[in-house]
Records
---
Amino acid sequence: MKTEKDKNIPYKIYLKEDEIPTQWYNVRADMKNKPAPLLNPGTLEPMKAEELYGVFCEELVKQELDNETPYIDIPGEIVSFYKMYRPSPLVRAYCLEEKLQTPAKIYYKFEGNNTSGSHKLNSAIAQAYYAKKQGLKGVTTETGAGQWGTALSMACSYFGLDCKVYMVKVSYEQKPFRREVMRTYGASVTPSPSTETEVGKKILSEHPGTTGSLGCAISEAVEKAVTSEGYRYVLGSVLNQVLLHQSVIGLETKKALDKYGIKPDIIIGCAGGGSNLGGLISPFMGEKLRGEADYRIIAVEPASCPSFTRGRYAYDFCDTGKVCPLAKMYTLGCDFIPAPNHAGGLRYHGMSSILSQLYDDKYMEAVSVSQTSVFEAAEEFARIEGILPAPESSHAIKVAIDEALKCKETGEEKNIVFGLTGTGYFDMVAYEKFHDGLMENYVPTDEELNESLAKLPEVK
Amino acid sequence: MKTEKDKNIPYKIYLKEDEIPTQWYNVRADMKNKPAPLLNPGTLEPMKAEELYGVFCEELVKQELDNETPYIDIPGEIVSFYKMYRPSPLVRAYCLEEKLQTPAKIYYKFEGNNTSGSHKLNSAIAQAYYAKKQGLKGVTTETGAGQWGTALSMACSYFGLDCKVYMVKVSYEQKPFRREVMRTYGASVTPSPSTETEVGKKILSEHPGTTGSLGCAISEAVEKAVTSEGYRYVLGSVLNQVLLHQSVIGLETKKALDKYGIKPDIIIGCAGGGSNLGGLISPFMGEKLRGEADYRIIAVEPASCPSFTRGRYAYDFCDTGKVCPLAKMYTLGCDFIPAPNHAGGLRYHGMSSILSQLYDDKYMEAVSVSQTSVFEAAEEFARIEGILPAPESSHAIKVAIDEALKCKETGEEKNIVFGLTGTGYFDMVAYEKFHDGLMENYVPTDEELNESLAKLPEVK
């Protein structure tokens, strides 16, 4: 036996099917300082529901703006869909603990065991459901690495909705297999920037030969939605509604831990736009906000795209084309694009308004990690725990290992919980670079950041 | 709700961790007509254990030759490893039933939720364990599509064994990501035929420019094993030992069905070398052999490589280089290579001796299906059940759907169980061909088959 097992705790804690949450938890209800409202890009006034209805589905707008209701019912059709791949396992990392020789107890919530390969499906199915309910023909979106696009394609296929995905051109070319999965689910996938939209044409004329960015693909998807009859735009991260849907991750995690009387000391999640981290921590953060319990909560971001650790808490555009509402968030500036050699995902310039407010209020910490250290952790984890992690998820693995090694020094038996958001089957080009010693660590200089931060819009 | 759910049966039936089998079931013990013995390629006499020790690990040789012991203990270390990804779910395909509007009840045992992406890990970890226990340095093997090579790499990494994989050249070139996953687990991967072995050199000189075959890669891996100090050869299918290890699939399936009082009417599995099918059906076949129950059992093979439905039951070489022992099996002749446009896996020229004997004794049926019909079923399944299936597994899906549609006509509420052996994340090139309408159906002519069958060795 390589591992010494706690008598009562299995390798994988599975909840029963009827223990899947039937309500999402809205952490905003427990926040004293609410996340700042979205602003109209023209007037810089807070967006009203009616103004958002042209872009987003109505029910989703309501969820976006609802800072008060703590629990929101999950419609039965969504719960049914969740049953196809949920509850997801909470895994006790016995093998990793043994390998590290740490007294810490490590748990991870594994969201990769579905065909989209990540947690993104939790929100995709909700957004597709409300689009269908509103009688829409379809939805538009952007995707970078492709996890969100894949998830949305699956969700739209389930409800018979059309799905138009703008995929960052460099990913479109480097990840033909992701594109092909989306096609399997009937989605149309267009490399961005494209000539299908005005904003795409404009970007192409200003930057011929550009390989695209997430912010630019967002602009195209939004334009397509608002100019097409029966379409709305959907987004896989950053938004309040997305964190609401992703609360199923945290609710299941908490229920599984509670079953075995385990109280986490440290909760760790990777953070790009914040969808996974926000979902994982939500019920724990709720307890913390209500003063019922305390947890150390750590957001992990790439050193090459460090919005929490080196960004500014300010209003910024959510997209490059500046057609979207402004959000108050930790941001590197909407023109910031991580270096092309950045392979580890989490490349959005901003961060969820909810998490930004919580971070600003010191309810959580953030650290940034270098790309090669992330891939070292990923490979170690793959070999020991038998799951090939997504580069994004591996940011959390890296810090979980670091914290477990600290426990080894101090002898503390801390309970460490982290989010393993997805699998890396479509990221083998990055792994190959790492194996071949061709992966570099890029960290933006202060000058670069100052340049893009200097362009932040002025909002009183 | 899209699906009407049976009150008591969840979407996914998960056994508890302590319900993972602790013994493998050896179906040979219940066979009146035992599978024919392996023959020495030089003398054509039955192989004795000592003769096999140079090629295979000793404990595995014993398992290979044991036709009598019905239950064989699974070592604790292997059970521990199984706990990292087992028990695998038995899924009730509510959504598929609803879509087909069939009164049939469809279940599938899903073996794809581990990083190797298939059931192959069940035997890989066993073979690596016995190699480690024997004090070996490492093992050699071949891989075609890459599932077996990936599984073995994971298993060897777990036990700290060296792993040398000969990968059919055409796959090596077309599936760089599979190769990269193996590298992540520390395996060395060589395109076959190579100049590393005498048999590889010989094949290259006779067929310059060949893209390789499974039979040829086997020859290279065996040569490497017997000429390297501290190495043995391991194989992912066909062998009796592999079917023994894979019995965990069937044992878990039966236990899960028994829990809910479900008796399958039809059991369906895809068949290449027979590892999945043999494992899935084993405890059911045991009951059938003992006269305790009856089940319809269907092997599904590709029309382009139809060993059961168009092959001959005869002694043949297991490899192209004719260095391996001979096995009595349904075979197309060891020189048979499926057409290069065959994308659906299951491309081995022969079939497990156990299954061949059972088929010859009429304990099971076999059907062959065309490639495009398999991909149609695969895409339908992906959209409805949310799992992107491996092309191999999709052969079983195709026939499960066919049988469910027959039930729709007759109104019979049959219980259909099939094996969903793995996921198709590394098969997107084939899916792309299918989407682009470039996939062809190739069926060998009688002349072609007769030509390769005419070369079968003469054995009295």
---
Amino acid sequence: MNTSSVTAIAHPNIAFIKYWGNRDNILRLPMNGSISMNLDGLCTRTTVSFQPSLPFDELIINGREVTGAGLDRVSYILDIIRGMANIHDRAEVITENNFPSGAGIASSASAFAALAVAGSKAAGLNLSEPELSRLARRGSGSASRSIPGGFVEWQVGTTDEDSFAFSIAPADHWKLVDCVAIVSASHKKTGSTEGHSIAPTSPLQAARVADAPRRLEICRKAILEKDFDAFASIVELDSDMMHSVMMTSTPALHYWKPASLDVMNSVRMWRTNESIPACYTVDAGANVHVITLESEAHIVEKRLREIKSVEDVLVAHAGGPATIVKNSD
Amino acid sequence: MNTSSVTAIAHPNIAFIKYWGNRDNILRLPMNGSISMNLDGLCTRTTVSFQPSLPFDELIINGREVTGAGLDRVSYILDIIRGMANIHDRAEVITENNFPSGAGIASSASAFAALAVAGSKAAGLNLSEPELSRLARRGSGSASRSIPGGFVEWQVGTTDEDSFAFSIAPADHWKLVDCVAIVSASHKKTGSTEGHSIAPTSPLQAARVADAPRRLEICRKAILEKDFDAFASIVELDSDMMHSVMMTSTPALHYWKPASLDVMNSVRMWRTNESIPACYTVDAGANVHVITLESEAHIVEKRLREIKSVEDVLVAHAGGPATIVKNSD
């Protein structure tokens, strides 16, 4: 058995075309494809070592031991890895996020991407990028997109085998910046896993899914051609469509707060009335990701900070792939 | 020719299942049926007299002469009436609203209902309620619902002949109250007529329309059985579905302001956490209609007034049909 202690880092990502709802909740096969950008500067750093002496898997997040559902979700991925590598040792998983939880940036994407990379390598496997993306997907759908670098598309696929993400352009292709307007640091009431499972209860979800190939094509083309106007329209439309589905689910999920709408309406006005290249997108939470060009990022950040209900602004550029940073074998 | 000066009043209405989008923009045949409640206390009072001496139709709203598009829309209805009555005289139309414009209550419904009633009678016609509802519909779709009294359903119909509204329960059937939280008195940027015409551009409109018969049935049943919980869920769902379509149209229509969301989120919390029977519905504007029971109306009004961004609260009970109040012939 060729196991070792491996450390990997992965970035969270912000989706421009959103993932919401699964065809298969266990395999996390999505209802529609999605497109995202990795967020540089923000990362999860995870070390995995399989140890014969351990009676159980151990998970330490930001210095604190985690048990229960959090550990179960990690063990589920470790079980898949153990099955692939044909090993039986339990693992110690030590993980740290350099960004605060509740900052409007889900840590599950970077966490499961880093776990997939570090865990598979520590188990002696040498997985390809698509294989790593598929493995990360099993822990959190959006984690599949944190494996490749830069601008990433997660193709919907038809089975576990072909539902993975790949890079459509490297991080330096287009100097986009995500200014995250933090309007609420409180933890969201309904997590994404539960949210995905109720997406089919919305009378609007089927229409949103059926229209997804069109939105994906417009967004992909806008990124490849660096066409900010086309990009802005489709990104806001897609975000509003996901929240339309969320709001009309049973139970209804209302993630927007008044402050979210304040930022969204402001950004739209800046773009429409002043030709400032900025658009919003909102995940399953209240904070607003404002996407802009690097050249305008300082103006956008300054304006966001001037909005009274904005508590803080995080700024992130396009980031690279999940990578191994330390391998002790 | 048997013409006279006739005065009619009609109430605005608040839709519980919304009308949004037309199959026929000229005839104002709707994409889906709708259900509403007339609003007592608020009304448009309109006097119509056909006069041989007039070279043109004249329109006076709240003491001011109106020309241009506003007059054209009234003359269009007067032309239909003249055609039906086989008369050719131009008319003087004097109309007054007892509620402020920009108060979150569209005046077009009560205005065209009062015009249909007063105008047809002044032309010597004796139209049935369905005929009056169809005539009012030609001026403004929702005006068809201000003809019958109390709780009203506008059946979608298949042609001009069968697309009219009828009462499903009288005003005293259920003591519902509409507390209109005024958060913005500014005039909306995009009017309903233009909004209806772009509804098909939303990828979600077809799904919203296809699901309408289900929502209509749930709402109708909840009203007939006075089941507030069932009523509240379907009313909020329907409002959110209409705004989902609006937000995802091209161009996108965003009517909600931060203060709207503040009221909406508050109302939902009062109901969920404190079992206060209240729910929200929002038309093509920022103001929020909070529907509650008469027994709770004082509490709901008081709480709404405590929300900082609420400028004023209008309170209206269920109202009666459009009626003739004066006939000088």
---
Amino acid sequence: MRKRPALNVALIQESFKGSKDKTIRVTKEKIAKASKKGAKLVVLQELHQSEYFCQCEDTKYFDYASSFEDDIRYWSEVAKEYEVVLVTSLFEQRAIGLYHNTAVIFDSDGSIAGKYRKMHIPDDPGFYEKFYFTEGDLGFEPVDTSVGRLGVLICWDQWYPEAARVMALKGAEILIYPTAIGYLESPKDRRDELCEKENSPKERKKMLDAWIGVQRGHAIANGIPLLSVNRVGFEADKSGQIGGINFWGHSFALGSQGELLAMANEVEEVLYLTLDLDTLLEVRKIWPFLRDRRIDSYGELLLRYAK
Amino acid sequence: MRKRPALNVALIQESFKGSKDKTIRVTKEKIAKASKKGAKLVVLQELHQSEYFCQCEDTKYFDYASSFEDDIRYWSEVAKEYEVVLVTSLFEQRAIGLYHNTAVIFDSDGSIAGKYRKMHIPDDPGFYEKFYFTEGDLGFEPVDTSVGRLGVLICWDQWYPEAARVMALKGAEILIYPTAIGYLESPKDRRDELCEKENSPKERKKMLDAWIGVQRGHAIANGIPLLSVNRVGFEADKSGQIGGINFWGHSFALGSQGELLAMANEVEEVLYLTLDLDTLLEVRKIWPFLRDRRIDSYGELLLRYAK
């Protein structure tokens, strides 16, 4: 079989610019530049058009989702203009009162290659996503594009080996995670015990390492490269309930043995890298984990708890 | 609920001593010493009574399994004498022509707390286990002991998130992996391409990191501490087919966020550490991954391939 050429990738790690208009304009400029530098696959962070509005529960933010169809048209044009496969992360209004956290993947001709609706929805202090997003109902379906078969998942999904495995079993060639994760800050006027505990340098390092570590586990267990694109910068909680979130950046790329290929810092950054997909997937011949799965004995994975 | 006292653990990483008699005598001495130092849980490496005989396929090695019942009596006495919960890894003859790679777990009174028959069986150059071991048929069942509910798995199992997850769903409080993994050496009289490639320092590091990394992923995804005990030292392949295996040691212990608690070097070593199980499992309240599993959408995990 003839090998495909190596794939040039750009991961765009950004901060929110104060308004949707300004934010998407800057993102578009970065995509233009990435395209000029040869990128054929561009991945954006979770909910990249707006601030991370899930820090509090407020119905006004549902209005952000009403432009879903316009947003699709906008990013379709961008993908087409700059001839890149583009992974976006949008707020989808499916009906009034029914919303999803949805990745729309465009091929380089601007067509919609596929959609993925976030399947695992978190709900933690500062991350009240269960208020906004209904669990996805499209399953774990990789998306065929001109650069390969992409296993796109979103943020909280990254903690679930099941999601990564199903994508791999369906022939995904890369796992891709747009994400928005960071450190909680204590409110200025009072000390919040959970925030304080989480904000010690030791705890921060442990969280960051765990975030990278669990995704590295998916890359290794499935013999598959992995891209993770995180938001960066401080965003206040407008409700004042918490002190805001410092999104920790550190977007990264792993090879199919979990080896680190590239990592961003905790600043705005576009991470460029090259993936030789055909070679990367060869590792499965040496480490044939898919060969020996005990599918006769995994039934309990479908239970909530098995004790 | 009253908290349990912290658990003192000893992980015994050894080399083969040339004969079963000598090897098990030295192991027993190490258990005695560990007990004296306060260890209540002692974990031994995979197939710790003998050389790693799976480097070649030879029916003579089936004789090693014929002493399974005697071996159980021996280690039962050791556990009882030194009052430790003991995780052993034995070669089980279930019938002539039917053998398993079996962990027998003894409680500190010498009683058998449980058995686990290795479920995932590898077969790679130098690791011809499918010739020797039939796949386990006891499922992924944690074992209740006086020190906690132990999720004992064996070596190749460590690459499978499914195994770790089922153990966690069944209430395991620690994941424990006796293992035997190392670097293949080229035969002295010829260059073996696979061995040479795998033996570059860069490839060795990548393999070691992947071995740690995939297990770290299980600890994080399940919010559970993890102990992995590996064989160490060079063992020749008596058939001359390969140049032998350098078992790489590096036994380690992780906390429930995947943080490294202790790690051995590439020499004989007993690793001591203390686990506060009740506190470690508290992390699941902050990172509630079990809460949000999409059990309605994991059905494809039971397929061999889903494309």
---
Amino acid sequence: MMIMHDVVLVTIITEAVLEHSLIEDIGRLGGRGYTITNARGKGHRGVRDAGWSTDSNIRVEVLCDAKIADAIAEHLTKTYYADYAMTLYLSEVKVLRPKKFA
Amino acid sequence: MMIMHDVVLVTIITEAVLEHSLIEDIGRLGGRGYTITNARGKGHRGVRDAGWSTDSNIRVEVLCDAKIADAIAEHLTKTYYADYAMTLYLSEVKVLRPKKFA
Amino acid sequence: MMIMHDVVLVTIITEAVLEHSLIEDIGRLGGRGYTITNARGKGHRGVRDAGWSTDSNIRVEVLCDAKIADAIAEHLTKTYYADYAMTLYLSEVKVLRPKKFA
């Protein structure tokens, strides 16, 4: 019998140029880890075609508690939404080892 | 204090050859953006090994309202499920800026 | 009108060296398919920088029923958590064709 705990998954899709800034932000705001995959796509800033580069966008995931998720969402929105293509969404997921993420 | 809104995340995992068709379909059905990552995997069509190509499968994500999500799911199912390896699932997520996705 | 069914999405983020073992485990425990993307990130084992390799981490997704999801989560936790960097989370999603995943 496993004990599952609710945590929040924060997913950020944005320009690859922001990778290092985001990693710093996430750590400072309490995130204990992150996962990054390269992506391409179209958002409100127009098509980002990967024909010449598959690294143009990144998809960043952070598992954390609700309070840290809110802090990350609020900070990134205020800091980057005006000047960069960025989409951010939160989902509720279950993990086995919550201490890793809080 | 942030205002979060419910939207639907549509995730489609399918053959890379369908990328351009899917992008057209998503746009025509009301999707305002999408994110694509390259993937590999095994589904009901058998193993798709990435040893010779990491581009064999794609994972497409669309954030939209429930009505558009249903339209996308229904259209893709009718159009591609019979002839292509395709998996599609919907999840409820929260976003800060719903106007971007509706 | 589409009929949607609840299934569980198991997401595993771990070291690329475990890919073949995980695929065997997932199949033996009842998973009918999986999707893998290459990733990089930082977890409780420290930074895994992709500067020299974008294949250092993998992100594995499995759609299945709750019973199989529990079996996969329990087995992977017992088998790998002590010796490998691994994060596992479960989310509830909806699919159109549940028979593919059970």
